[in-house]
Design brief:
This protein is mostly helical and 296 residues long. The chain contains four helices and two strands; from the N terminus they run H-E-E-H-H-H. The protein has helices spanning 16-86, 212-223, 229-238, 245-269, and strands spanning 183-185, 195-197. It has a two-stranded antiparallel ribbon. The radius of gyration is 50 Å and the shape is elongated. The two termini are 81 Å apart. 0% of the residues are buried. The model has no long low-confidence stretch (mean pLDDT 81).
């Protein structure tokens, strides 16, 4: 019926309102059919686009996975470069490093091979000065059988001059400090005790047997060189000093009350400093550099 003219015949007594109603319904039917054909075309187009967008989504997921893998690789390289820059070996320079050379690195004729050992243009290291150390003079003599002329056998005469040389030696030994306190007696007739005795030297631990010098060595070895006390006592046993580990441990606990004021003073001082270092964090992490953000 679409596109055809339809003549509606009706009896004369048919109402004009009914004719108008039929014509309006027919017009609505034509519009609905047009809308249906339009929707079918749009549905077909959308169905065709679904496959395209699915393939695009799959490609996007593959690209995201590749980028995530690349980011992980770059993060690893960044950590390695950071460790090389701020690590322990950051200041060591390989012998084949040509990063500061302005010439062609492939041209070896301009850079002859460097000889090993001390270079002629470089001054040797300055010799250390040990004049602050105490001196123990020791005279070395010839054995009696060699104090004669090797040719005629006449005796040799001792001269006043000597041929001197020095060596650095270490003499570490434990000893007993025997305190002999002098006693005095009054020569007057005043009342009171007739004898006076020199006071004993101060002790770090009252009635303790170990002197202050021994505890200085224990504390320095423990907190300066970070060596366990048991290893220190083992090294002392090689020198003939055998200390009881339990006694040393108990006395260290008694010394804790003397060290607590120092500990509290350090706790108050550290927050006011500019640099804060903990664990194995190196000081380079906290250096303020131009263009550097944070302390990472």
């Amino acid at each position: 019926m679409a596109g055809q003219l339809v003549q509606i015949s009706c009896p004369i007594d048919f109402f004009p309102e009914s004719v108008a109603l039929v014509e309006s319904q027919y017009q609505e039917l034509v519009e609905l059919r047009a809308d249906r054909r339009r929707l079918e075309r749009e549905n077909l187009e959308f169905r065709q686009q679904v496959g395209y967008w699915k393939s695009r989504h799959r490609d996007a997921l593959l690209r995201i996975a590749a980028l995530e893998q690349k980011i992980e690789q770059l993060e690893g390289e960044k950590q390695q470069l950071h460790a090389d820059l701020f690590g322990r070996r950051s200041e060591t320079k390989p012998l084949n490093d040509r990063s500061n050379h302005l010439d062609d690195p492939q041209d070896d004729s301009q850079h002859p091979k460097r000889k090993r050992g001390q270079q002629p243009e470089n001054h040797g290291p300055q010799r250390r000065d040990y004049s602050r150390l105490p001196v123990r003079e020791e005279f070395l003599k010839l054995p009696p059988e060699q104090c004669v002329c090797p040719d005629c056998g006449q005796p040799l005469r001792l001269r006043t001059d000597t041929e001197d040389s020095e060596q650095i030696e270490i003499d570490v030994r434990a000893y007993r400090r025997k305190l002999r306190r002098r006693r005095y007696e009054r020569t007057c007739t005043c009342e009171g005790s007739r004898t006076l005795t020199a006071p004993p030297p101060p002790k770090l631990i009252p009635k303790g047997w170990y002197g202050i010098s021994l505890w200085v060595e224990v504390l320095l070895d423990k907190y300066f060189t970070y060596r366990p006390t048991e290893r220190l006592l083992a090294s002392w046993r090689l020198l003939g000093l055998d200390l009881a580990a339990g006694t040393v441990t108990d006395d260290l606990q008694r010394l804790e009350t003397l060290l607590r004021p120092i500990y509290e003073a350090i706790k108050q001082r550290n927050p006011r400093g500019d640099l804060h270092q903990g664990d194995e964090t190196r000081w380079r992490i906290f250096v303020l550099l131009e263009g550097k953000e944070g302390y990472g």
